[in-house]
């Protein structure tokens, strides 16, 4: 039997599943790091990787706990009611809960304490996600003629985000830009359509409250850990 052993873990600004982009590359401003386990901190293992602009990360859906598996799943893109085969989906609930993401390799830092650290952007992984392998992304990995089935191609419909910037306090413009990019992708399950419902998601140290009516997402509040009522 093959047993996968994590070689690294993801350090990201997403402490929970809700709000993470549904696929990599949708929010390029989302930064993260790949921190290797002590056994794999040999810089020789990364020799030549600096010549690649993007990498594949093979990782595990560690936050999804389910006994057994089902041959069909209900993709959110189909409203949560239509079933398709698990192997025709990107559902995290799979016989082997493995994900794979192409991400931009921003830099390789050689840290005396943590060993080599990969700084990446455009990821879709929760903080603490185990990493099982890393491979360089090459141009032949891109297939522009590919048909996406029921999955919406990148660049599809987005929500219009509205917020009162003056009420949000001294939140850096860079963080606001990433928050808006995350919200434009509509973090809600596709079958949710209640304009009165208030949703909450976390990014970095921020707790973001919003609701959605039609194509308009209104940010009601963004709180930080040190913000008082």
Describe the structure.
The chain has 229 residues and is mostly beta strands. It is built from one helix and twelve strands. Helices cover 5% and strands 32% of the residues. It starts with 7 loop residues before the first strand and ends in a 6-residue tail after the last strand. The model has no long low-confidence stretch (mean pLDDT 89).
State the gist of this model:
The protein is mainly β and 229 residues long.
Highlighted features:
4-stranded mixed β-sheet, single chain, 12 strands, 229 residues, globular, mainly beta
Beta strand %:
25-35%
Low-pLDDT parts are none
Classification by helices and strands:
mainly beta
- How much is the average pLDDT? 89
Oligomer: single chain
What does the main sheet amount to?
Answer: 6 strands, antiparallel, barrel
| Strand order of the biggest β-sheet | 1-2-7-6-3-8
Which of globular, elongated, flat, extended, rod-shaped describes the shape?
A: globular
Count of alpha and pi helical runs:
1
Instruction: Give the N-terminus to C-terminus distance in angstroms.
Output: 55 Å
Radius of gyration over C-alpha positions, nearest whole angstrom: 19 Å
Estimate percent helicity: under 10%
Helix and strand run: EEEEEEEEEHEEE
Number of strands: 12
């Amino acid at each position: 039997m093959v047993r996968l052993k994590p070689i690294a873990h993801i350090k990201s600004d997403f402490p929970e599943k809700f709000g993470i982009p549904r696929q990599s590359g949708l929010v390029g401003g989302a930064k993260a790091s790949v921190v290797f386990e002590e056994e794999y901190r040999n810089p020789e293992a990364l020799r030549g990787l600096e010549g690649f602009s993007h990498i594949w990360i093979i990782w595990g859906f560690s936050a999804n706990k389910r006994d057994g598996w089902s041959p069909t799943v209900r993709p959110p893109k189909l409203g949560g009611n239509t079933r398709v085969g698990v192997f025709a989906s990107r559902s995290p609930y799979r016989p082997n809960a493995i994900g794979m993401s192409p991400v931009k390799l921003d830099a390789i830092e050689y840290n005396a304490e943590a060993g080599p650290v990969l700084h990446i952007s455009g990821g879709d992984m929760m903080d603490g996600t185990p990493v099982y392998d890393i491979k360089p992304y090459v141009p032949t990995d891109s297939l522009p003629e590919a048909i996406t089935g029921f999955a919406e191609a990148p660049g599809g419909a987005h929500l219009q985000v509205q917020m009162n910037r003056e009420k949000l306090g001294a939140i850096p413009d860079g963080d606001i830009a990433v928050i808006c990019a995350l919200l434009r992708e509509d973090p809600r399950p596709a079958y949710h359509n209640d304009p009165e419902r208030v949703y909450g998601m976390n990014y970095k140290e921020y707790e973001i409250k919003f609701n959605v009516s039609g194509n308009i997402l209104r940010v009601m509040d963004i709180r930080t850990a040190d913000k008082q009522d």
